[in-house]
Design brief:
Largest sheet: 4 strands, parallel
Shape: globular
Radius of gyration: 18 Å
Number of strands: 7
Strand content: 5-15%
Length: 264
């Protein structure tokens, strides 16, 4: 079944002939970018990384590193979603406004390339609240992983078999996903979240989220890391307070991707 899905993905990419991959550096988009380059060749597969305050600095650097390691044809493009009041208001449609900003940059790039924009959406993503998917599709983007039936586990398994170091990379949604709906998204808020998460990674924590509640940070870690966090409590507190927060809390339920969507 795994081999069949890989071939189905390759066949779908060949039908598109030329693609621009929305390349955030996460496991899904990295796998899609590698497959596109391997299937179509670098001349027909462009990886494009959207740069804005909502992208963690580590992710931008990793995209550049992966491009060199894998021989990707790669560009970084600036997006300005924070200039849109509808985005910064942070209602339940924030993701839609974000994808609109992304496609406003990638669609013209794809037109210049004579290509189709492809996103690393997998089958599991279809069950979450992600209104941006419909916006991207309406603007001409396609989802090759969904069409080939890839789940998140499939992506990780195939990436591991192919020797891609991103196979076990922790999920890294945009930084705005750390801000509860209804709380305005600003450059300052995103910078605080990014600084706090970077500091925690330097302490050795991989899978994490710092949820922003004004001057309080709610830290989500893998359940298996909770004891380690308590053992180095002073370092964790210093790391998060050093980013600008006054209060530091540890969520005993652990890391849950997309859990702020429950408020909707």
């Amino acid at each position: 079944m795994a081999a069949e899905r890989l071939e189905e993905l390759r066949a779908g990419l060949r039908r598109l002939e030329r693609v621009v991959v929305a390349f955030s550096g996460g496991a899904d988009s990295a796998f899609l970018a590698w497959m596109a380059r391997d299937t179509l060749g670098p001349a027909a597969a462009l990886a494009a990384t959207a740069i804005s305050p909502s992208l963690a600095p580590e992710e931008e650097r990793d995209c550049a590193d992966l491009a060199v390691e894998w021989g990707l044809r790669w560009v970084s493009v600036a997006t300005d979603e924070l200039a849109d009041p509808a985005y910064t208001a942070n209602d339940g449609q924030r993701c839609a406004h974000c994808k609109s900003a992304l496609m406003s940059v990638l669609a013209p790039l794809a037109a210049t390339e004579g290509a189709t924009v492809v996103l690393g959406v997998n089958v599991d993503d279809l069950g979450d609240h992600r209104p941006g998917q419909a916006v991207a599709a309406a603007a001409g983007a396609t989802f090759p992983l969904v069409e080939a039936g890839f789940t998140k586990a499939d992506v990780r398994s195939a990436s591991r078999r192919l020797g891609l170091r991103t196979w076990d990379k922790p999920a890294a949604a945009c930084l705005a996903s750390r801000v509860p709906y209804g709380t305005p998204v600003t450059v300052g808020v995103l910078a605080e979240v990014a600084a706090a998460e970077s500091a925690l990674r330097r302490l050795g924590f991989r899978q994490l989220r710092v949820r922003h509640y004004g001057d309080l940070a709610r830290v989500e870690l893998d359940v298996d890391d909770l004891e380690a966090a308590l053992r180095c409590r002073d370092e964790v507190v210093a790391a998060v307070q050093g980013a600008g927060y006054r209060y530091v809390t540890l969520d005993l339920e652990g890391f849950r991707s997309g859990n702020l969507n429950q408020a909707l």
